[in-house]
Amino acid sequence: MFYLLLIGIITLVLFLWRRNFKYWEKEGIHFDKPHMLFGSLTSLMQRKHNFGTAIYDIYTKHKEPFLGIYILFRPAILVRDAAICKDMLTTSFASFHDRGVYVDLKNDPFSANLFSSKGQYWRSLRTKLTPSFTSGRLKAMFPTLIESVNNLVDHISENIPDGDKGTVFEVKDLMSRYGIDLTASSILGVENNSFKNPFNDFRMVGLFFNSKSLLRTVQIAAGFLYPDIEKVMRFFGFRDKVREFMRKIVKETVEFREKNNFMRKDLMQMLIQLRNTGTINPDENHWKVQTVAEDLKSMSMEELSGEGFIFFVASFENAANTSTYCLHELLQNPDILEALLEEINEVLKKYDSEMCYDAVKEMKLLDRCIMETNRKYPFTILNRICTENYKIPGHDYTIKKGTPIVMSLMGLHRDEEYFPNPLKFDPERFLNNNYNSAAYMPFGEGPRHCIAYRLGQMNAKVAIVKLLTTFKFECLEKREIEFDNYGATLMPKGGVNIKIFKK
Ligand code: HEM
Questions:
Q1: Which of 65, 131, 294, 457 could form a disulfide bond with 280, CB atoms 3.0-4.6 angstroms apart?
Q2: What are 20-46's pLDDT values in tens digits?
Q3: Is the C-beta atom of 445 inside 6 A of ligand 1?
Q4: Is the CB of 317 inside a 6 Å radius of any atom of ligand 1?
Q5: For the chain, what percent of residues have pLDDT higher than 70?
Q6: Quick one: average pLDDT of 407-433?
Q7: Which CATH architecture has domain 81-502?
Q8: Is the pLDDT of residue 201 over 80?
Q9: Atom 23 in ligand 1: which residue has the minimum CA distance?
Q10: Does pLDDT of 267 surpass 90?
Q11: Cβ neighbours of residue 108 closer than 8 Å, sequence gap 6 or more
């Protein structure tokens, strides 16, 4: 009897399994032929790629404007056509306003941050938070960035001997520490030095996020497309150290500031303003905030911690990647490096050699170099969930409500059709308009685009200007970077080794 039951269950599972992988065939659209165990993510499970580069791999294997894929077992649509992507993210936003990732406002308010939240709650939160990222606010936060970049420069200087002998540094590691410190400082309001104290808690969070284990790699993919897994984990009381740490940091910072009437020009101050008054003052010079009774506060400490957490996660690795890959490309392209140095020196002369916000804003070639870096090395994917049936413009197919949508930024940004000679680092393509602008989306597109893109760009620019004006560099080898099989972003295989000299 037992064996009969077992055979019955196995047969049923196999039947449902096979039926699941017939989904796209039945829908009658082009699809990526699934592996019987891993769907379209064989390369991820075989540890050849991380999630983003596995999706890129599928993008390059097909030519159709959109296709069915299986994120392990879950059917999803990969959109390859830039115009369709743009339509979904902008004009047809009403059908794609959510990401479809895990969020549970009622039972787990920590999860209801700007990235994950949905519908009207997201819209209201986005409107409230937007005034935190105006250029006036960024200008006021600028000194916190300078403190972090000075720690980076001090560390490099201390590790280069006097004379003309340089030292080889792994730049991704340097920039990751810089990214962690500047994020802790400019966002959470905590001064941190990952160079003097490499095992600090913030850095441990960073290392946890980029852990090389297969479990973590699968967790990242699941985080984007299997919200129910996290729901079940939370239901059973799963607690993770990262959340505990973030709660502690945010609580301590808020309590300290309120008790001592302490004010610092950073994002945490904006979040406290929002919590205490229900709004962020549109007057960019207004940073102070009065303490109010707990029951008059508009956000719980849990919600505040969740917001601090998502800003931290969204910021640190992007800052590290943009500055690392930009420096790498500048050394591979000495003529661009020379022109950039000329621009930097010329602009700084006007500002008595002081690197200030206005000076950096004036550096136009620098801006194009960062844009080109974000093109060639983007955050790998965008994702949405279809919230209303959507007929794909120009095609006879309607995407059903509830279908996950994936867009490969790496695919679009490295597609010859949209960016001629895509592997060439060519900042001038933005001057000559020699590309398809619908395909350029390093910060996403439409109402849900990156809320802090200007801060993101500034974080990298500050590092590049400071390093180029302080040190000399030697490119150790001419190469196209390959990417590793772990992490949520593009991880350079073998790191990025650069020799740095004192000037
Ligand atoms: C070079 C740096 C950065 C890059 C490349 C980047 C990229 C992105 C991308 C691709 C998205 C998804 C957009 C979409 O789905 O349409 C996004 C969203 C987001 N980013 Fe950034 N980001 C950067 C810096 C930052 C920083 C510094 C912060 C926080 C201070 C931040 C906070 C966020 C948040 C909260 C969202 C979700 C917005 C929403 O759903 O309303 N990002 N970012």
A1: 131
A2: 889 999 999 999 999 988 899 999 889
A3: yes
A4: no
A5: 99
A6: 97
A7: Orthogonal Bundle (1.10)
A8: yes
A9: 456
A10: yes
A11: 234
Residues 334 and 119 sit within 8 Å (Cβ to Cβ): no
The reported pLDDT for the residue numbered 232 is 79
What number of other Cβ atoms are within 10 A of residue 214's Cβ? 13
The 3-state DSSP class for residue 177 equals: helix
Paired residues of 70 in beta bridges? 75
d(CA 277, CA 263): 16
CA 296 to each of CA 254, 276, 351: distance values in angstroms, whole numbers, following the listed order: 16, 7, 46
How would you class 166 by CB atoms within 10 Å of its CB: exposed for 0-12, middle for 13-18, buried for 19 or more?
Answer: middle
Residue boundaries of the structural domains of the chain: 81-502
Which residues have a Cβ under 8 Å from the Cβ of 202 and sit 6 or more positions away?
A: 180, 181, 183, 184, 190, 192, 194, 312
Tell me what the mean pLDDT of segment 266-286 comes to: 92
Instruction: Work out the angle at residue 378's Cα, subtended by the Cα atoms of residues 317 and 270, and round it to the nearest 5 degrees.
Output: 50
**pLDDT at residue 78 greater than cutoff 80:** yes
- Token pair in block for residue 106: 């009622």
Query: What is the distance between the alpha carbons of residues 50 and 482, in angstroms, rounded to a whole number?
Result: 12
